[in-house]
Write a structure and sequence with these properties.
Layout (H helix, E strand, L loop, with lengths): L1 E9 L2 E6 L5 E6 L6 E3 L18 E3 L8 E7 L2 E7 L16 E7 L7 H13 L3 E7 L6 H11 L8 E3 L8 H4 L7 E5 L6 H8 L3 H12 L8 E7 L2 E4 L22 H6 L18 H7 L5 H16 L5
Parallel strand pairs: 3-7, 8-9, 8-11, 9-10, 11-13
Antiparallel strand pairs: 1-2, 1-6, 1-12, 2-3, 4-5, 6-7, 12-13
Helix pairs in contact: 1-8
């Protein structure tokens, strides 16, 4: 069977690109995906809560945009016969095998929030998604204020790429446009930060294409029946302007520390090593680095607030 990448889904009809010939085909998913058995180790096997043990089970599964699939021609039509294992998957937008997320934060309107930035970073790290921080609307603040923001973000540059852009004037795009090669990219960030403006600046024809789809469907384009990734910069970008909210679905506060990359970098020096929660344990290297100013106070405060949030949340069963 042949291997392909799904690039579009509209009303049950899939568009996919053959990975060897680059030919584009349209077809449907074979009915067996309505329910299939998955092993404990399968990437399709998800835990609902920390109390849910992974086991062999039957699940309802549908191919997603971004999936690598096997297909064949039968009964005068192309059929998707198998979905290969996923590295990750999202539900908003409905995309699989995402390589990176442009984490868009505006310099102003809404004001930049370091706590929200830390929360997004933790969620993306936990989902095996590479964050790239994009600061938008730099044209709406003066140079002094922008320089202060850049100074505050200097710590993050040790771990993440950061780009400063003015989407309307395409300032900062010369470097930004080079990061998409061989990757599937989506955008994330709270409402109003300029994700749509950035998306349309990157791919001007996108606004026209999505409007055509909306007209054809007779309803808004962001429905469960339409999702698409567009070829751009040698890779793909999801058609959606991203998602403004990603769920903070942790049920075990002891896991949070593993997604603070600055903590994991130094915890080998902790008295209790990787078992240290960096809260009240003696000989904690994270707290030592914090007192020396080598870890941002705001980062540690974010960590404390996330731990408290999870502790106080009513547990799911």
């Amino acid at each position: 069977m042949k291997k392909a990448l799904i690039t579009k889904l509209i009303g049950g009809l899939y568009t996919f690109k053959d990975l060897e010939t680059n030919e584009i085909f349209e077809g449907y998913a074979r009915g067996k995906f309505r329910k299939m058995r998955v092993e404990k180790t399968s990437s399709f096997n998800k835990n609902a809560t920390k109390k849910t043990k992974k086991d062999v089970k039957d699940i309802v599964l549908s191919p997603k945009v971004g999936d690598i699939i096997l297909y064949e021609f039968q009964s005068n039509q192309y059929m998707i016969t198998e979905i290969l294992e996923r590295t990750n998957e999202l539900s908003r937008p409905d995309v699989a095998n995402v390589d990176q997320v442009l984490l868009v934060f505006s310099a102003i309107r809404p004001d930049f929030s370091f706590t929200l930035l830390d929360k997004f970073l933790v969620i993306l790290e936990s989902n095996n998604l590479k964050p790239i921080i994009v600061v938008s609307k730099i044209d709406l603040i003066d140079e002094s204020t922008l320089n202060c923001l850049k100074t505050d973000l200097k710590f993050y540059e040790k771990y993440y790429d950061i780009h400063y852009v003015n989407s309307k004037a395409r300032i900062g795009f010369d470097v930004l446009e080079t990061i998409f090669k061989d990757k599937i990219t989506v955008l994330a960030g709270q409402t109003g930060v300029g994700k749509s403006t950035l998306m349309n600046a990157l791919i001007p024809e996108l606004a026209l294409k999505t409007q055509e789809i909306s007209d054809a469907l007779g309803r808004g384009k962001h429905t469960t029946r339409h999702s698409e990734i567009y070829a751009f910069g040698g890779g793909y970008i999801a058609d959606t302007p991203g998602f403004s909210k990603i769920d903070f679905e942790f049920h075990d506060y002891s896991l949070i520390k593993d997604y603070f990359v600055d903590f994991t970098e130094v915890e080998v020096e902790c008295k209790f090593g990787s078992k240290c929660l960096h809260l009240s344990e003696p000989g904690c290297a994270v707290k030592s680095y914090l007192s020396e100013g080598k870890i941002l106070k705001s980062r540690y405060e974010s960590y404390q607030s996330f731990v408290t949030e999870i502790k106080e949340r009513k547990e799911k069963y």
